[in-house]
Amino acid sequence: MTTKEYLRRFFEEKEIPEQFFVVKDRHGDVHYIDKDWLVDVIINYTPTHEQKKIADILRRIDFLNGNVSHFLAHLAEAYVKTNY
Predict the structure, then answer these.
(1) How many domains does the chain have?
(2) What is the reported pTM?
C-alpha cells in the first residue's frame, strides 16, 4: 500500500468530526481551514516525503488512541504560516 493510499484509507475510516481550524498568519489575518479541505491537500498536493512523515505521525497517534484533530490543527497552522 502506498502512503497516499494509506492516508486516503485512514481518513475514510476514522470518524473525525467536521471542524474548522482558525489560524492567524504573520500579518494578523485570520484563516479558516476546513478539515476536509486540509485532508484533500495532504492526500493530493503534499509532496511524498512529507506524506510519509504525516502518515508515520498518524500511525503513532492512532496506536496511542490520541486525538488526530490536534495534529490536524498543527498542520493547518503550518500550512497558513508557510503560505501566507
Answers:
(1) 1
(2) 0.93
